[in-house]
Amino acid sequence: MKLKRIGASLLTCLLFVMLVSTDVYASSSTGAQNYVTGNDSYRMPIPQCYNVVETINNIGAFEDEERYFKNPQDIFVDSYDNVYIVDTGYNRIVKMNSDMETVNIFYGDEESGSFNAPEGIFVEDDGDMYLADTGNKRILHLSPEGKFVEQFTNPDSELTSGAAFNPSKLVVSPTGYMYVVRGENIMAIDGSGGFSGLYGQTDIGYNLTEMILRVVASEQQKKSIVKRTASSYINVTMGSDGMIYATSMEREEGEIKKLNSIGTNVYRKYKTVGNSISNPITEFIEKKLLKSVVASNSFKFGEYFDDEGMYMEPIFRDIAVDDDGIVTVIEELNGKVYQYDQEGNMLVAFGGKGESAGTFTMPSAIDVDSKGNIYILDRINANVQIFEPTEFILLVHQAATRYGEGDYTASYDLWQKVLDIDENYDLAHVGIAKTYYKQGEFKLSMDESKLVSDRDVYTQAFDEYVYVVLRQNFVLVLVIALAIIVGVLLLVSYLIKTSKKAYWSFLNEKTKKMGVVQGLKYAFHMVLHPIDAMEGIRYNKSRINMKVPFLILIIAYIVRIAYIYIVHFPLASMEVADANLVFEAVKLWIVPISWIPASFAATSISGGETKFPEITFTSALSLTPYIIINLPLMFLSNIWSKSQQSWYGVFSVLAYIGMFLILYFAMMILNNYTMKKTIGMMFVSAFMMLVIWLVLGLFYVLSGRLIQFIFTLFTEFKLNFL
Predict the structure, then answer these.
(1) How far apart are CA 130 and CA 143, in angstroms?
(2) What is the pLDDT of residues 291-319, one digit of tens each?
(3) What CATH number does domain 45-389 carry, 3.90.770.10, 1.10.3210.10, 2.120.10.30, 1.10.10.1760?
């Protein structure tokens, strides 16, 4: 009966958690026209940031030219706000003035020949044009009147020989170097057409599996091994700071890059790709089964879920950078526009797929003029939409720019104006927190960053705040620290002695059942001396008290809940408001509870000696390391910050290592197994646990379908007969 109640409780917890998880996920897939997203992928609506002020569907009445665009691929706005459209379908360049009136159309001349499927353009301040004439496998340098100046083909180099030269997107630096998108890197060409190097290739890291295969494989097998390559670049532009900004298919480091003079990405990164030992199992889980989990648990550019909540990997088709360094990209799959500051913080997201104004069918290019207006080219709709910034987003731009320039007072005032319009705009609170930090107001910075759960800024301010407190109260802090250390040592000494006494009293009192308090002390002794404690249980199975394991489960749960509320903010794995009491119970109990039937099933078919009581007893007591470590850790965390996260994580890992060791010794000693057989039975039990979870999951799906069917029938009955 007890096992049935345990199973029912566990199943109820799992069902509730799945329902809650579904609701949260559904809410994250809906959003307003203008919004920002956090690390949890939730869309936070914000005030309107851009308004569509004009849509250009044709070139107007210009001589006898074809009025409409056909498959346009690129758009460029020069320093005088003239607009150049690469109209690929008609092999032409359409030049418009700042009023979007066509002033010229270029097809090439007798010397250059006709363009063939051009895909990209860059225009210098003097009006000279550089065209990626893709179909002709060349780059054309044209005068402001469209006359041929020179052309560039595949530069002569060992690194480029044998590779097709299909230039699609390019930029030209003030020094005359051309940077051309070339697969997994960007090719630099000097003003005379010479090869100047390959630029910006992402580090793919070291792969142990591949190295081993190349050592042991035959020559024929080596030929069949697919060579790993870096992710391809998609588009490039150049900022007023002289940096190359690019979009790529890179999912490890980040799709948006800012490359310095030596090709190193200095923009916000997901993580640093370095030497690693690949694990095919974890790679499969992360890339195939847990895509949504991986995408939602850390910072990502754009979004990894579309408006219907389906998983996607964004393709940023083009990128634009204004004079203040504001980065704007257009995403092809969901038609969204995303904007970021120089630190990679999302400022706004808007747009989407559709035929109405402000949405796109297949966006192909984006650029920005001197007034901050955004021009977006749609190659399927064959039009250009112009977006004008509102007062709100202009204030955001100014605040971010002033902070980057070091004018913290002006930045603070501007962020306050942003909050006057939208008090829930998180980045404004982050900006104010950073301003407080720069001004030395560390406590205010901590309070402000905590409002929007920014643990990075909080950590910076906290570390400085701790230093100030230590410097001002060094003697007092030292005395308190010594007192705490002495107290902890005395407490640990007492617990060791009393747990040892409980252990010997349990062994010696042959006719007396284990007491509850005695059992708790015995659990502590098990952590220190697991083999001796397991031997004591093995020879005194009938005297163990089954109230103890249930009490351990409850204590561990209380510790977990207390941990959520007490742990220091920068080290917390979740927000207190997001804590779900049922979900926390499932996470904590699912392993020890499911281990009970799994272990019993495995040992029953292999000559094991254990029964349900002792398995339940030792499984529950495996949570003792969790209690012992996390109880002081939750308080100790309040003098640590995110900068000590790696050390903090070591203690958390130790709790689970202790749990595993107790389960291991329990199986080996209680069943009188050899080490080899114990390891085998551990794997079998783990497999049984997975089967149990799978059955529960299937039951959840089927019961959910049944409940939905019954609810549908009830609704139909109500509509037709009531």
Answers:
(1) 9
(2) 433 344 468 899 988 888 888 999 999 99
(3) 2.120.10.30
